[in-house]
Amino acid sequence: METLKVLFHVSEPDRWKVALGNITNLIKDVGEGNVDVEVLANGPSVSAYVDSELIDIMKGLAEKNVRFVACRNSLKKMCADDIICIDEDKLPSFIEVVPAGITEIIKKQAEGYAYVKP
Amino acid sequence: METLKVLFHVSEPDRWKVALGNITNLIKDVGEGNVDVEVLANGPSVSAYVDSELIDIMKGLAEKNVRFVACRNSLKKMCADDIICIDEDKLPSFIEVVPAGITEIIKKQAEGYAYVKP
Amino acid sequence: METLKVLFHVSEPDRWKVALGNITNLIKDVGEGNVDVEVLANGPSVSAYVDSELIDIMKGLAEKNVRFVACRNSLKKMCADDIICIDEDKLPSFIEVVPAGITEIIKKQAEGYAYVKP
Questions:
Q1: Domains, chain A, with CATH or none
Q2: d(CA A22, CA B102)
C-alpha cells in the first residue's frame, strides 16, 4: 500500500480528544509505517500543548512518528489576549513551532496531504 | 464537464441537515450524472443512520447515487459509551460500513475527491 | 516560491473573525503576491456580507487580491427563513455571487486549491 499522508487541523481545544482518537484509530487500521501524520494546532487549541493529560497521549503518538506542530501567531495571540502565555522553548521537544499555521496547512496539501478537520 | 468528486465529512449530529441540504443543492446545480458524492459519518454523527426522518432524505439521495458510509469504530464507541448501540446488520442497505472512517477520508482525497466539512 | 492557492470555507457567522485573522496572517507570512486566496461563504455566514465592521476588514483584504464569494442558495434560504434578506445587487462590488457555494468549493479543490475550514 502506498503511504497515506494526512494533516489534521485542530483549531478548537474541545476537538483534541476527537483528533487524538482519530489518529489512534487510523494507525491501528493501516499500521504505523503506512501513514504520515501531521497535526497542526492553531487558534486557542495551542493551549493543549501545555495540558499534561493530552501531552501524554501526544507523546505516545509522537513515538509512532506523528508530528505535532504549533502556530506561533496563535501562541503570541493567546498571550496578548491574556489567555495563556506559553514559552515555546519550554514546549516538549516533539512539538515543532511554525511562524504561521495556515501557511503550513496549505503547503502540506500542496504536497499531497489530505486535510481532516476533526 | 469532467465529473466532480467530493467527500462530505460529517462528525457532529447537528451538521446532518446542512450536509444533506448541501448535497441536494449540489446535485441540482451540476446535474446527477456530473458529480460523485460520498458522505462519511464518524463520531456521534453515526446516530443519524437510525433516524427515520434523516434516513428518508438520505434514501432519496442514495437513489441519485450518493454513497453513505459509517465508521465502525464510531459505531462501537457509541455503544461502549452507552449512548446508542446500532446493529450494523440492521442499517438500511444503502449504508456501507468501513473499519475506520478516517482512513476512508484520507484514501478518497488521495483519489482526487474534494473534502467538505459542512 | 510557487504560488500557494487556498479556499477558505466559512459556513458559521462566528468563524469570520478567525477566517479574516488567518488570511491576514497568511499574507503577512508569505507576501501578497505569493498566495491566491478565495473565501467562500455559505449558510448563515453570508450575513457577514452586510456587516459593516467585517466588510471594512474584507475590503482591505480584497485590495490585496483576496476574493470573497457568496452562495446564492444560502442568500435565498436566509431570506426564505425570515432571517435576513440580502439584495445581491447591493452587495459591495468586491463580493462575487455563485449559484451554489458547494460546487465552487469542489471546483477550486479540483483546480489545486487547498481547503481550510477556519
A1: 14-33+42-99+108-116 (3.40.1260)
A2: 7
| The model scores a pTM over 0.95 | yes
> Would you state the cell numbers that stand for residue B30, as one nine-digit string?
451540476
User: How far separated are the first and last CA of chain C, in Å rounded?
Assistant: 24
Look at strands A4-10 and B67-71 and give their pairing: unpaired
Looking at beta carbons, which residues of chain C come within 8 Å of A9?
A: 116-117
What are the φ and ψ backbone dihedral angles of A90, each rounded to 5 degrees? -100, 5
Sequence length of chain C is 118
Contact criterion met (CB < 8 Å) for B5 and C106: yes
User: 483576496: which residue's cell?
Assistant: C66
Per CB-CB distance under 8 Å, the chain C contacts of B5 are: 106, 110
Record: contact C30-A103, CB cut-off 8 A: yes
Q: What is the DSSP letter of C61?
A: H
ipTM (interface predicted TM):
0.96
Per DSSP, B92 falls in state -
Give the pLDDT of chain A (118 residues) as one tens digit per residue: 689 999 999 999 999 999 999 999 999 999 999 999 999 999 999 999 999 999 999 999 999 999 999 999 999 999 999 999 999 999 999 999 999 999 999 999 999 999 999 9
Element (H, E) at C75: helix C72-80
Alpha-carbon distance of C76 to B46, in angstroms, equals: 30
